[in-house]
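Quick start: what a row looks like.
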Amino acid sequence: MEEYSFLADAGAKGLRLDKLLVLNLPGNPSRSFIQRLIKDSGVLVNGGARKAHYIVREGERIEVRFPPPPSASGIKSEKIALDIIYEDADILVVNKPAGMVVHPAPGNWSGTLVNALVGHSKDLSGEGDASRPGIVHRLDKGTSGLLVVAKNDEAHRGLANQFKTHSIKRTYVAIVKGKIELDNAKIDLPIGRSRRDRKKMGVVFAKSRDALTRYKVLKRFEDCTLLEVNLKTGRTHQIRVHMAYIGHPILGDDKYGAKGMFARPALHAKTLGFIHPSTGKFMEFDSEPPDDMKKLIERCSHGKDH
């Protein structure tokens, strides 16, 4: 059972309990899921049960106990269309659409990429978390693009080792706010959990991990810039955090400072390259940005990036 505990800060004063939890818990749980959790005594305030409409006071301790995730055998198989770029006996490369969550989590037990993968194939690795069969790495819900999936444990271990040693080639296309001055640059700053907001990551220098992002300007517009971004590490929200830190947040990224400019973070995982875990041969795949990003680029080119 997954548990979270935190103290309500000054910003929580006057908020309903259910709304506070939606704003503070990881995994983007829905309000209806939180309300069911409260009703089932999965939430305590200062050690006692409260109603969903309870008004939280500053300094109160909130404890949340999520129900255990389903085992691999308990994951719902769903017939969801997949854009499969490549598949063999060991791996599967998919082009994930924006808006799809990668794996089941509290508030998102269905409609995920894992649900679709279970519906597509009985052969998925069981290495690691049982609730995430086949998943070696992730993309944020709002990010589109390429993911490699392991169909057996040996393939999973081989791919996971490449991610661990940062030998995987990962190139993204991003559209950021403002004109970036340097044509090429790197951002070498550690990333950890934000102290101000538990649902955010940030550039922090204690209890953090090294993070290295390189970018190249593809085109500058009136008030936005089209970038090619390469990840050397794969920290949570890495590109989004680094770009926001240098004052050029990803358009549409309401979590990190570019709210209302696009329906989602304008970020696409375009290129994915790795050594095949069985054949030992290097493989590289490419995916063009989806139509919504192409239309955004066109608007930016006409000075209509808002």
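That is the whole record. The two ends are 43 Å apart (CA to CA). The chain has a mean pLDDT of 90.
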